[in-house]
Amino acid sequence: MSSPNTRWIVIGSVAQSGSLIQVPWLARHLHVEALRIKDWALALATVTVACVPILWLLQNSLHRAPESPRLPPSSGR
């Protein structure tokens, strides 16, 4: 997601999906049911467990010193 447009598309898709499921009238017509508190807690816990390692790796890669370029070995001439 390198451009702002792609971020807005993802945000819009998630918001639209959430609204379709959480609005009882729409959910009934789509044959789904709104999430309950326990379901939200499970979803939040799952997202947290999934995102923590990703954020940790991202933080480490941002704070790591850049490696110096390696020169090819000299032929000794």
Walk me through what this model shows.
The protein has 77 residues and is mainly alpha-helical. It folds into 2 domains: 1-33; 36-64. The termini are far apart. The chain has 3 helices and no strands. The radius of gyration is 23 Å and the shape is elongated. 68% of the residues lie in helices and 0% in strands.
The succession of helices and strands, N to C, reads HHH
Task: State the helicity in percent bands.
Answer: 55-70%
Give the beta-strand count.
0
Strand content: under 5%
Roughly what is the average pLDDT, rounded to an integer? 79
Query: Which spans have pLDDT < 50 for at least 5 consecutive residues?
Result: none
**Overall tally of domains:** 2
Euclidean distance between termini CA atoms:
49 Å
Q: Report the structural category.
A: mainly alpha
> C-alpha Rg, in Å?
23 Å
- Tell me about the largest β-sheet: none
Number of helices: 3
Form type: elongated
